[in-house]
User: Fold this.
Amino acid sequence: MKFRFDAGCSTFVAIEFYMSPITLVIHGGAGTILKSLLTPELETRYKSGLQAALNRGYAVLENGRTALDAVEAAVFELENNPLFNAAKGAVFTHTGEHEMDASIMEGLTLDAGAVAGVKSVKNPIHLARKIMEQSGHVMLSGDGALEFAQQQGLDIAPSDYFHDDFRYAQWQEIKHSDQYQLDHSDKDPIHREKKFGTVGAVALDQFGNVAAATSTGGMTNKKYGRVGDTPLIGSGTYANNQTCAISCTGHGEYFIRAVVAYDISCLMEYKGFTLQQAMDRVILDKLVKLGGEGGAIGVAPNGDFSLTFNSDGMYRGVRNQTGLNQVAIYGND
Ligand code: ASP
Assistant:
């Protein structure tokens, strides 16, 4: 919101409010998502899950609340949907557990909170926000993060809450190997469904503030406390009111090495790129050259938004003040 004071007359002050165009963009993972691999029934379930998250986050913006509240609400909705690899429905680790990563960042203050490798916390995105606002730290991990969540009164769930039969079957296929998988089934190496089920949201509120949030179960059969890009501020998540808010999904090791989210912001800040130019450079050029598959969503303070991926598909959606309200899965729709 911007104020213009007209001091021409001592008894009258004119105030103009420039409301920013509220915008919400979400993703539910990217990868080899082909129409031939999804039944119409499953496609409908994915789309309605995405729409529910868009509706929940957008209602927050419409009610005049902040971008930070909106991204937390949208990710919360996706975390609760077992179709996506975050919280309920998170992939299995090598030891048959669920170790979750999440992060959140506010573009106004550059405040951020993140959690890595936490178990049993029903909604890791709530924990990331508590870490940002209550811990005095940016990132907590493992048992300490769980202890902090309990102290903060967050919901804790038994391990069967996170169980999903499809994820379990994925883990059974490879649990005796050293292989780890990015939330995909490669039973048929030619037509395999390879997707990254991480969830994320970016938003612009009416006050001109942007925010980003991302949450994941990481990789099937991961071990040694492996952590991907999702909880790393600057790699999987970044927000800055001067540039943009970004949430990523894909093969985390590459996103870490390319510092994807911050790199997009830097191209805008230091080189004057538009959001789309910066996304194209990083996702479609730099990452591709490294061999990194995946995508990202972004929003800028002027209402520009982008959903860019170098994989076959990305579960995604966007809703804004112009009436745009769309979800999509494949390359074109
Ligand atoms: N980026 C996540 C990770 O590497 C995976 C994903 O996006 O699905 O942990």
